[in-house]
Input
Amino acid sequence: MAGPSTPRDSAEMRRVQPDGALLFCGSNLRIRVAVLKAGLVLLSAHGEAVDAEDVEAETRMLAELDLELERAGTLTLFADLRESPRMPAASRESISHWTRRHRARLLLSHVLVRSKMLEMAMSIITMSVGSGLFKIHSNPQVFLDLLKKVAPKLNALPRIPEP
Output
């Protein structure tokens, strides 16, 4: 586990990217949130929530999803989690809680994983909020093909910038 760190200011933790996407940066976790069109979000993550800064980055990401839900009314999420090795229990709980709270307005969403540990974490979340909400993928091309059906201009999955 990471040692204590000095708190980051808001501008350092939330960065607007050149393409308009938002990057939320903790010590060990980076999350890129791109609204592709109203109610359609492509989220990419690198790392995991280990310390308070990471938890804050995760909290800000969920708040951004709240804003998009308010703007669009419904939300379809495509989450590329290939660069996250696992999801700590506290993260699973906060994401499960957020998902249960918004269940009625969430449409079928897709999650791309590489790690079996993360796949199991997503299965736990799916079981706790009800099946049929998340489809878990391990093949990046299948994930990208599904994404391109709703966002045809997207040609590749974005990379998460270094801090």
The chain is about 40% helix and 25% strand. The CA atoms of residues 36 and 151 lie 7 Å apart.
